[in-house]
Design goal:
The complex is a heterodimer.
Chain A: E1 15-20, E2 24-30, E3 33-35, E4 38-41, E5 47-51, E6 54-60, H1 62-83, H2 89-102, E7 110-117, E8 123-128, E9 134-137, E10 139-143, H3 146-156, H4 176-193, E11 200-207, E12 210-217
Antiparallel strand pairs in A: 1-2, 1-10, 2-11, 3-4, 5-6, 6-7, 7-8, 8-9, 11-12
Helix pairs in contact in A: 1-2, 3-4
Chain B: E1 10-15, E2 20-25, E3 28-30, E4 33-36, E5 42-46, E6 49-55, H1 57-78, H2 84-97, E7 105-112, E8 118-123, E9 129-132, E10 135-139, H3 142-152, H4 159-174, E11 184-189, E12 194-199
Antiparallel strand pairs in B: 1-2, 1-10, 2-11, 3-4, 5-6, 6-7, 7-8, 8-9, 11-12
Helix pairs in contact in B: 3-4
Classes of the chains: A alpha+beta, B alpha+beta.
Chain lengths: 221, 204
């Protein structure tokens, strides 16, 4: 097959971030959908609830993301029928990795972050590349604003950075309120310097009592 | 790899209350091989004016030599030091002279002007000036630096707090860039004194 140009994929821009805490997980993504230098919509959700305690946020090509979400939802439904329970976050993490690698030679152009609570109730964040390589980490960011955000998270989260050796337990000692405030701050900063990030940020907090959603306004330029 | 990424560099300057700080990393590399861990990127023009040069190291050194030459001549003729705004225009003109065969360096200029008002600016390799009121960044780690400075910067910081902020911003940013790092060099300039400090960060 002759590949002329990049007609198969498009980058819709945007940024997503997740932070794991001792008993909570914060996931956030902006709501802008762009193509080239245009904005298609200011109100597009990049976050999808896959299971009770498992949420996925992605940046990249949103067409592939919609297909991926549909695929995972179907597989999760089958799992529920067969096992009579919801999938745990680490199980969903493995499923996502396998689903992505299945299309190794025509990938989903999505950069995913999975967040939720593991079976012990501790926050967990899994970060992926486009073909399914994944790792459990304490925090992660993907998308056009990720390069602006990750150094700040390295500095502020006071949790062992994945760059340290030997590898340490991942979760941050920050409280839920502090983590949400940090997420709001980094999105405000990323919005200033990244043209694809802005409009609104959708923040989901997963803890023992369920999933809470918050929307914060960002600069619209 | 681009010519601007051949040696690796990170530079940042920030404005505080009646003071400014300018900081750089210390790595000199040749592609992915590190060749020096104490490379100086920030140079003094006069007591209240400093220039940092990122990008290709040989061009940075040549630019510095040419600028020092021009400033010394200026001092002989005018019998005074150059104002930062004037110096910025000089750098811009020298870079644009080489419009069709440029110096591959991006300067960051920081100084105290009339009445000790802090002045910072940066330019691209062709001399397009960008005057900022808060902070300017340059080098291979510039995207990380933009993010870190945007989050950590507050206006009107005193010199101690400014030093902390610029150091944290520099170290967090170079830790995510493989071509810059090996510690940091921070100069904090107030109307009365200049403090020069070396930071120890991840030595890789």
């Amino acid at each position: 097959m002759a590949i002329r140009g990049n007609w198969m994929y498009e980058n819709n821009g945007g940024t997503c971030v997740a932070i794991a805490g001792a008993d909570y997980c914060v996931i956030a993504a902006d709501t802008r959908l762009s193509v080239g230098y245009s904005i298609y919509t200011r109100d597009y959700s990049k976050i999808c609830k896959l299971a009770d305690k498992c949420v996925m946020a992605s940046s990249g090509f949103q067409g592939d993301l919609k297909a991926l979400q549909k695929n995972l939802a179907a597989k999760h439904l089958i799992y529920q029928h067969q096992h009579n329970k919801q999938m745990s976050c680490p199980a969903m993490a493995q499923l996502l990795s396998n689903t992505l690698y299945y299309k190794r030679f025509f990938p989903y152009y999505t950069f995913n972050i999975l967040g939720g609570l593991d079976s012990d109730g501790k926050g967990c964040v899994f970060t992926y590349d486009a073909v399914g390589s994944y790792e459990r980490v304490g925090y992660s960011a993907h998308g056009t604003g990720a390069g602006l955000i990750i150094p700040v998270l390295d500095n502020q989260l006071k949790s062992p950075s994945p760059l340290l050796l030997p590898a340490k337990d991942a979760v941050t000692p920050l409280s839920e309120m502090e983590a949400v405030d940090l997420v709001k701050d980094v999105f405000a900063s990323a919005t200033e310097r990244d043209i694809y990030t802005g409009d609104k940020v959708e923040i989901l907090v997963i803890n023992a009592s369920g999933i809470r959603q918050e929307l914060m306004e960002l600069r619209k330029d | 790899m681009s010519i601007f990424e051949y040696n690796g560099s990170a530079l940042v300057a920030m404005v505080g209350k009646n003071c400014f700080a300018i900081a750089s990393d210390r790595r000199l590399g040749v592609n992915l091989q590190t060749v020096a861990t104490d490379f100086q990127r920030i140079f003094k023009i006069h007591d209240k004016l400093y220039i940092g040069l990122s990008g290709l190291a040989t061009d940075a050194q040549t630019m510095y030599q040419r600028l020092v030459f021009r400033h010394k001549l200026y001092q002989l003729r005018e019998e005074r030091d150059m104002k930062p705004q004037t110096f910025a225009s000089l750098v811009s003109a020298l870079l644009y002279e080489k419009r069709f065969g440029p110096y591959f360096c991006q300067p960051v200029i920081a100084g105290l002007g009339d009445d000790d008002v802090p002045f910072i600016c940066t330019m691209d390799c062709l001399g397009a000036k960008e005057l900022a009121k808060d902070f300017v960044v340059s080098g291979t780690a510039s995207e990380s630096l933009y993010g870190a400075c945007e989050s950590m910067y507050k206006p009107n910081m005193e010199s101690e707090e400014l030093f902390e902020t610029i150091s944290q911003a520099l170290l967090s940013s170079v830790d995510r860039d493989c071509l810059s790092g090996w510690g940091g060099h921070v100069l904090l300039v107030t109307p009365t004194e200049v403090q020069e400090r070396t930071l120890k960060g991840r030595m890789d």
